[in-house]
Amino acid sequence: MKPNLIALTLALALAAPPALAWSRQGHQLVGEVAERQLSPEALAEVRTLLADEPEPSLAGVSTWADEIRAARSPLGELSKRWHYINIPGKDCDYMPARDCPEGDCVIGAINAQARVLADRSQPKQARVEALKFLVHFVGDAHQPMHAGHPHDRGGNNHQLHYTGKGSPEGEGTNLHGVWDYWVVQSAGLDDAAYADRLMALPAPADPALGADNPAQAWALESCRLIQAEALYPRDRRIGDDYLDQHRPLAEARLRLAGTRLAELLENALAP
């Protein structure tokens, strides 16, 4: 590849829009990790529901919720706020009426779509859309900046300057975009190799197991990680050391998201 073409490719990658939470690869990894853990019965149900999809797998439909939002379709517009939750303050003190009015946040969306998927009296298309939403939103709930704070829109307004092997000359970005895209993509692995890497991680303990509202527990867990793991860098310039430092956390979140998604689907699709 010619040097100028390499530079253009890197520049376009750095410009990847933050709307694609976890990036395409990140969401596909959540879907793949979940699918590898499904029982044969649940997997058969998934295959039946997704039979008419261009890519009939959890990984294949994992970015559909972002795609309809980017296209500004009616359903995409309706679901814009379902991808995240913003909670004021550093203590992640969640108040449903304030932070998720009428269920209009990622917590409410996961719970609502899980009910639709589990209800076999619903039209098939509604259940298919619910499945596609769930694959995506469970991933979103585990990206810490998707449970961030309103003062900077979950890090979208926290501007950064990245200089590293991806862009030696430096590029402007923001904290949300770094977590959506760069922390995972900078590992340089293809989907299959990355999924193998995640599955080789120790089976994650689930501190939210048995929670009355698992989706709420997952999102608040993400929110608390922002402070606990010092995700806001000390200055506005970051390099590969920031990505390398936080990649293990991102990979742990992806692995846990896939495991939790598999459990959610088992419960919703049980005969």
From TrEMBL:
**Pfam entry (one):** S1-P1_nuclease
Extent of the signal sequence: 1-21
Molecular-function GO terms, alphabetical: endonuclease activity; hydrolase activity, acting on ester bonds; metal ion binding; nucleic acid binding
Q: Which Gene3D superfamilies match?
A: P1 Nuclease
Q: Which GO terms describe its biological process?
A: DNA catabolic process
What name does the UniProt record give this protein?
Answer: Endonuclease
Q: Which UniProt keywords apply?
A: Disulfide bond, Endonuclease, Glycoprotein, Hydrolase, Metal-binding, Nuclease, Signal
Organism listed in the record: Arenimonas donghaensis DSM 18148 = HO3-R19
What are the boundaries of the region Disordered? 146-169
InterPro entries named in the record: PLipase_C/P1_nuclease_dom_sf, S1/P1nuclease
